[in-house]
Each structure stands twice: as C-alpha cells, then as structure tokens.
Amino acid sequence: MTDAVPLFVYHSVSEHPEPWLAPLTVTPQAFADQLDIITSAGRTVIPLRRLVAALRGGPPLPAHCAVLTFDDGYADFYWAVAQVLSDRDLPATLYVTTGAVHVPGRPADGSLLPPAPMLSWRQITNLDALGIEIGGHSRTHAQLDTLRGRRLDDELDGCKRELEDAVGHPVTAFAYPGGYADPVVRRRAHRAGWTSGALAGSAFSSAGDDPMRIARLRVRADTGRETFQAWAQGLGAPVAPYPEPLRDKGWRAYRRIRAALGHPVDGEIERQAK
C-alpha cells in the first residue's frame, strides 16, 4: 500500500433513484459490499475531522485509513445508510445543500438540484445527534467558481448559518458543489469559517493534502468491484497534492464565459462533463 488515503464520496444509495440521479447512485447491496471491501483491505474508517486535524498539523493519521462522505442530502441516507453505518460503527460526513432540504408544504428554497426526495431538517438534526458529521454543500448547489461578491458569500455564509441554526453547534466541513473551487473560492470559504473543503472525486488524499482542497474518489453506479478494490488498496488514481489539470482550468473558463453571457452550464451538461 501507499500513503494514499481514499475519501469515498457517495451521493444516493437506493434501489429506485430518480432517473437523473441514477448514474451517481449505488444500490444498498453494492454499498454493503463496498464497506466489506474497505474492511478486507485492512482500512480503518476514520472521521473526516481526524484527517483535517492531521492536515493542519495535529496528530498523524493512522496507517491504512479511509473516510466516508456523502453529498447533497438525499432522503435515502436516512433510510438506507445511517443504520448500516451505525451497525458497523463507522463514522461519516454528510454534506448538505441547505436550499434543497425538504420542508413539508414548501418547495425547495432556490436549489439548483433537480427534484429528488431530500432530507428534512428534523432528519438532519437526528443524524447529527446520532454522530453523523453534518457539513455544508452550499445553499443552492451553484458552481461557486463562477460567482463572486455577495452571491458567493450567500452560498458560503448562508449555508453555514442555516446548518448551525439547525444543529445548534459549529459546522466546519464543506464540500464544493461539482468540486468547483478556484483559489478565490477556497480563501473565501476559509474566511467564512469552513476549516476544510472537499473536491468532487478523482484522486486520493494524503497526509500532505491541502485541507481546503481535499481530494476524494467519487463512487458511481458504474464503479466496478475491481476498481473499488484497487482504490481500497491505494491504487488506480493520482495522489494529492497535485497541480490543477489544464483541462479543469479550461472547463472553468468555459463555464465562466457561459455564466457571464447569462447561459450557465446546466446540471445535466455538468454531470456529463465530470
């Protein structure tokens, strides 16, 4: 094994996801199998906050560790994931898009995510009480590196404020929607009080990773067993820190131009591109 640290990022765990979400969904059986693979590989699943502490000069990471994270805040986390994690005594971080939280009798508050069953605030507070770390994923799931000024502040500060009002204590872990975070976004997120920022999912983290640009590995419906086994063994993907690829810089420039012209890249194109 290498010093690679797999931070697995999931979205939905469901047998019957919304069609648009299906490519980012794994079945409950596949999820259980992947947890078994992590254990069989000798990995210890640690809380995200322990990784962040190590990246910021705290106690070193244990050998052969891994981290579980979940993006957006889909309702199936409550029914298909939380009990499995509890039964196995595994920690996890759930990054919530606050504008998409389900409020009975009200539509989503400006969320850019397509319709899907989402967690309610009551469920989020229950998960927090059960020991799931609640993190932020912006207010609307906007592409943050195309925003500046008050719009960016609202996504970062507003998300933090809403989560902290709900759970009653500081919330410090953030994941950039789509992984879009240029240096300006990362600095602004840190000033807003987020002590970590996670990317979307194409590389391993490591003890030398940037806490405001933490690399993750996205688990998709088409992530095969052999691929997942390789990841659990620390193989098959680059290890952070690493320079931002030119392809990603070009994609950002294109999205900014589209946004400036009033025709932002929509979610479906974004998902296909990523």
Automatic annotation (TrEMBL):
Domain named NodB homology: residues: 64-274
Subcellular location(s) of the protein: Secreted
Predominant location: secreted
EC number: 3.-.-.-
Top-level taxonomy: Bacteria, Bacillati, Actinomycetota, Actinomycetes, Kitasatosporales
GO cellular component terms given for this protein: extracellular region
A single GO BP: carbohydrate metabolic process
GO molecular function: hydrolase activity, acting on carbon-nitrogen (but not peptide) bonds
PROSITE patterns: NODB
Name of this protein: Polysaccharide deacetylase family protein
PANTHER family found in the cross-reference section: POLY-BETA-1,6-N-ACETYL-D-GLUCOSAMINE N-DEACETYLASE, PTHR34216
Alphabetized InterPro entries for the sequence: Glyco_hydro/deAcase_b/a-brl (IPR011330), NODB_dom (IPR002509), Polysacch_Deacetylase (IPR051398)
Superkingdom of source: Bacteria
Keywords from the UniProt entry: Hydrolase, Signal
CDD domains for this protein: CE4_NodB_like_5s_6s (cd10918)
Pfam families xrefs: Polysacc_deac_1
